[in-house]
Amino acid sequence: MTAPLIGYADRVSVRAGEKIAFKVSSVGPTPYNAMLVRIIRGDPNPGGLPAKLEDHSELFESRFASRQQHAWPGSYTLIEGAKGVTLPGALAVEALIWPTLPEDGPQTVISRRDPASGAGFALVLTPEGMALESGTARVVVGKKLRSRAWYRVWASADPATGMLRVGQQPLKRAFATDDEGEASVTAPALALDVPQPVLMGAEAAADRPAQRCFNGKIEAPQIAGIAAWDFARRMATMEVEDTGPNGLHGRLVNLPTRAMKGAAWTGVERDWKAAPHQYAAIHFHDDDLHDCGWADDFSFTVPKDMKSGVYGMELRCGPHRDIIPFFVRPQVGKPQAKVCYLASTFTYQVYTNFSRALFDQPFRERVAGWKSAANYPDDNKDYGLSTYNFHRDGSGVAYSSHLRPLLTWRPNYLSYNDDAGSGLRHLPADTHLTGWLDRMGIAYDVVTDHDLHDKGVEILASYKVVMTGTHPEYHTENTLDALQSYTETGGRLMYLGGNGFYWRVALSDKVPGAIEVRRTEGGIRTWPAEPGEYYHAFDGNYGGLWRRSDRPPNLLCGIGFSSQGRFVGDSYRQAPAARDNTHAWIFEGVNDELFGGYGYSGGGAAGFELDRLDHRLGSPLNAVVLASSEGHDRKNFVAVHEERLGLDTTITGETLDQLIRADMTYIEKPKGGAVFSVGSITYCGSLPHNKFDNDVSRLTFNVANKFGELGLKWPF
Q1: CA–CA gap between residue 383 and residue 406 (Å, rounded)
Q2: Which terminus of the chain faces fewer neighbouring Cβ atoms within 10 Å, N or C?
């Protein structure tokens, strides 16, 4: 399904004087309108405050001709330099393959073919085994390959005799399985040599970049006398290297997965850097997508006096509407406010286009009735998957790119049909916080995870307080180092979410727009990485939970992921420390011991994913628990996997029920620094309750006011 109006930007954030380009696909017969807005509130729930988008048409508004731009999923290797190389008479081609969908229709392993005439050749996996095709000639082995087994496959063709041969041989035979063989046929007037590029994992098409994409791993492809490609080389790049005399190096399209164990993997070495020849395979998928490559429709240069914030380019064409969000950050060392909101763009990107299989008829009716964001991943598979999804062949999605339409990065986008609230996650859920900042009159700058990764602690150093959103789950070593340094040198952090600082991700300058995650041992996860494939291709580091690298979130914010449940929330109960002389200021104006049993995320401030204090995992000894959540039953919540040993045995010695809680904590740090953590994803959803006049809003205001040295008065 093609979205009638959709677009994306060439970058996540931009600062004064920089240009951001927008790429749009519109199927409408009339021009579309583009207008700049600032995104303040993005909750479409008719029972709450209306969404708030500030009109900034004075800075940008224009009309542009509609044109449809396509996304073409499917990864492959492209060898452009092969166009000018002539075959040395006969053709001989071979490769090692590990097919994952051998029962599917034709999938091309290696090809050099004219898409119009069919001249050239294609070595193809079919449900009947390996086939060689050239023009109208075709020969097939006639024996099906097994899934997830390594084969040597080969083909040859001789124009002088017209003989075509194709063969397949399993590297490990399976008992009572006949999957080895060779076949030949004679065909007249073979046209093998065509001035076309070589493709691996696909073949050229007339109406799109490539077709018949392969699902599975390919290793050591070669064409005798022409090239021999070694996929173990240039691992952290989008390049493939030819070790032959012609130097026919190539590039990867749509980001297939690298650092994959190959046919030579022994199980002894699990780090590809230590034994690259054992990781000389690339896993291709017909639903991979990296850079859509759309042409620019228009661009916007940020004025020097433009306020930092969350912005969007609002598109309208007839009845259709879309908003492409982006972030305007301040210049390093030149803050516009005392408060910095750290937008969790790594987490947004990892979850991007998450097809949750929840988009049933009642959900569709709510989307229509609330006039929420119109385009959902369940209906728009061509725009790529989330790393929370599986590829069609059952392997996990390891990469996510922002160089494509980001359907879930939209204000008013619903993730759940939430009976007790709005069902928002990520960017739209974080507008509960930006809307609160707006209502409280708190000026703030926005810095993204991407900015923090690139610039380090320097970009935070000028702020009195840094606030996270609802779910800062994914981080790099750079971002954690920056936050740790900030809090250890006098900075104050407000961690206003849950399940934060949990998974490790990797970025690479050589792979623009992309982020990598490996779902290694442990952790709440939707798919497991294969044994031996735990190290990132991008940076070579061990993936998975930061806890597995001895850096649990407790070290930074005092608490760490403890339990997960359904998208429901409940209350906190104040601990004795909340009323002592040291911490009573936090709860000034909060009269009830039990608070937070309301909100637009699951109906309560403590819900969905919860973090708790644990000194064994690095929670500082001076961390004080101000409140803990309650009301979470075992029917709706479970303790995280990494804490469970047996049915009811935990590492800490506590019962599973005791692990299911959120601990609101306060930590004093050196040089006047401090950390305030709430330990719940649904916390910010309670801020807008009763038009922001509530206990959760009040205590958050108290902390922000003191941390930021704002000198504000409670506005109600």
Answers
A1: 8
A2: N
Indicate the SS3 state at residue 390.
strand
**What is the crossing angle of helices 695-707 and 426-440, to 10°?**
70
- Residue 622: phi, psi to the nearest 5? -90, 5
Statement to judge: residues 468 and 563 lie in one domain: yes
Taking 80 as the threshold, does the pLDDT of residue 207 lie above it? yes
Residues facing residue 561 across a β-bridge: 611
- The amino acid present at 438, given as its one-letter code, is D
> Contact, 370 vs 42, CB < 8 A?
no
- Exposed e or buried b for every residue in 520-541, given b needs 16+ CB within 10 A? beebbbebebbebbbbbbbbeb
Contact 537, 515 (CB under 8 A): no
Please report the pLDDT score of residue 616 as a whole number: 93
For 443-558, list the strands marked E by DSSP: 444-448, 465-468, 474-475, 492-495, 503-504, 514-516, 544-545
Question: What residue type is assigned to position 32 of the chain?
Answer: Y
pLDDT digits over 508-554, tens only? 999 999 999 999 987 888 899 999 999 999 999 999 999 999 999 99
From residue 47, give the alpha-carbon distance in Å to each of 222, 456, 678: 63, 41, 26
290 is a domain residue: no
Q: From CA 137, how far away is CA 134, in angstroms rounded? A: 5
In three-state secondary structure terms, 607 is strand
Cα(690)–Cα(189) distance, integer angstroms: 80
456: containing domain: 320-707
Q: Do 91 and 133 touch, CB atoms closer than 8 A?
A: no
Is 504 inside any structural domain? yes
Q: Using the predicted structure, report yes or no on whether residue 600 has a pLDDT greater than 80.
A: yes
